[in-house]
Design goal:
Arc Repressor Mutant, subunit A, four-stranded antiparallel sheet, three-stranded antiparallel sheet, 9 strands, globular
Length: 226
């Protein structure tokens, strides 16, 4: 049964944000039941979803008329599918090694300039890493007929891999008021730069959320997801 659907015909960069907003609207949030109250967590790492959508848009074969990109949300998984198989000579095994070939060089350069693509070939590794760190199954990459599909599974195989510093960050935010990067850095005894790296990973796996006007906002605050 189809509960909701959305057709998007915007420019590519805008379309990505519209897709992500639609997924966010329908994404089911899991709840870990504790002794006193439940703690909400994302069922899928936001960074993995974003990378899957960006990769699909960047590598789609737009020569296939009438073959749209599709994002499908199920109870146990999210599928992102684009027209076009992998470029000739590139295999799924290559993707896991960070090897990539751009089908659409103009789109690739534009996305890189916009900050949507950080480094060529890093998207798949980032997806896999985020899911593993969140204790989820490894994403599935498939070539089906003339299309390429990425499946992100919400099934948890283990608890998210957190070290002592990660747990200290999460604990510091247990009050719910939110903290600045500098405040968190002071609490855990790391430099602001090292702290930002930690925070980005915890946001990526869905344990934290950030509130601010942008990546360079000095007043950006971090909160635990609830």
């Amino acid at each position: 049964m189809i509960v909701d659907h959305l057709d998007i015909h915007s420019y590519l960069a805008s379309a990505i944000e519209e897709v992500l907003a639609f997924v966010d609207k329908h994404m089911v949030h899991g709840v870990d039941i504790g002794a006193v109250r439940g703690k909400e967590r994302w069922t899928l790492p936001p960074v993995a979803i974003r990378e899957a959508v960006i990769n699909a848009v960047a590598h789609a074969d737009y020569a296939q008329r009438g073959a749209p990109l599709r994002v499908s949300i199920f109870d146990d998984r999210l599928e992102v599918e684009n027209p076009g198989l992998l470029p000739f000579g590139l295999t799924i095994e290559d993707l896991h090694q960070g090897i990539s070939k751009l089908r659409n060089r103009v789109i690739g350069r534009t996305f890189h300039a916009l900050g949507l693509i950080e480094q060529w070939g890093s998207g798949v590794q980032r997806m896999v890493g985020a899911c593993r760190e969140a204790g989820l199954r490894t994403p599935l990459f498939e070539e089906i007929a003339t299309r390429f599909r990425v499946t992100l599974f919400s099934e948890r195989e283990a608890e998210a891999a957190l070290d002592e510093t990660d747990r200290a960050i999460v604990g510091a935010l247990s009050g719910g008021q939110g903290l600045l990067t500098s405040e968190i850095a002071t609490t855990i005894g790391l430099t602001p730069r090292a702290t930002r790296t930690r925070l980005a990973r915890l946001v990526g796996i869905g344990l934290l959320r950030e509130v601010g006007s942008g990546p360079q906002d000095p007043n950006r605050r971090y909160f635990r997801t609830r």
